[in-house]
Amino acid sequence: xxxxxxxxxxxxxxxxxxxxxxxxxxxxxxxxxxxxxxxxxxxxxxxxxxxxxxxxxxxxxxxxxxxxxxxxxxxxxxxxxxxxxxxxxxxxxxxxxxxxxxxxxxxxxxxxxxxxxxxxxxxxxxxxxxxxxxxxxxxxxxxxxxxxxxxxxxxxxxxxxxxxxxxxxxxxxxxxxxxxxxxxxxxxxxxxxxxxxxxxxxxxxxxxxxxxxxxxxxxxxxxxxxxxxxx
Length: 231
Fold this sequence. Notes:
By secondary structure, the chain is α+β, with helices and mostly antiparallel strands. The protein folds into 2 domains: about 5-75, 3-Layer(aba) Sandwich (Glutaredoxin), CATH 3.40.30.10; about 85-230, Glutathione S-transferase Yfyf (Class Pi), Chain A, domain 2 (Up-down Bundle), CATH 1.20.1050.10. About 60% of the residues lie in helices and about 10% in strands. The protein has helices spanning about 15-25, 45, 65-75, 85-110, 115-140, 155-165, 165-175, 185-195, 195-200, 205-210, 215, 225-230; strands spanning about 5-10, 30-35, 55, 60-65. Strands 2-1-3-4 form a 4-stranded mixed β-sheet, with helices on one face. β1 (about 5-10), α1 (about 15-25) and β2 form a beta-alpha-beta unit. α1 (about 15-25) packs parallel to α3 (about 65-75), α1 (about 15-25) packs across α6 and α4 (about 85-110) packs parallel to α6. The longest helix is centred in the middle third of the chain and has 27 residues, at about 85-110. The model has no long low-confidence stretch (mean pLDDT about 95).
């Protein structure tokens, strides 16, 4: 019997984060796939925000991917996915917060905006964020390995990776590529792409590009699209 149930959607990068955490932990889990375009009525009783991912573990029902992943790391401590030193744990949380509140809104706003000037504005914002990550993040924190904290794989890595797997969407719809200056991020992306947990659930561009067509033409109406328009 599965120890954890995860309510997920293959197209959702936030759910992707938690599936990676479960795989890295080696936890026995059951996936309940939710059709985000046709959510069952009962799902509202599981997910107060009507979003994925949500996990059920015993009497606990937890939502929001970053919080779920820290919960998993606390309840299933081996292998650890957060640094053991408090200062480094704080740095890990800072970068996850940066992804959630800086990088990802720019990613979505490039797609959602139909005005060319606004697309260019958010493309520059995204480029600035990537250069900041390159210079102030991975280049300083990872001097002896492939991951954000060097040889130690962490929640920072799996919190960021799902959007890089979907980078083909930005390339296809907005001609936005990872800046050439981001050498360390490119190396990180390459290392992540072949990690066993990542490879086991990886999807191709042919899967993602149609999934994001409504974002690109401005007609996306899901909760994430609504929230990103307000940011």
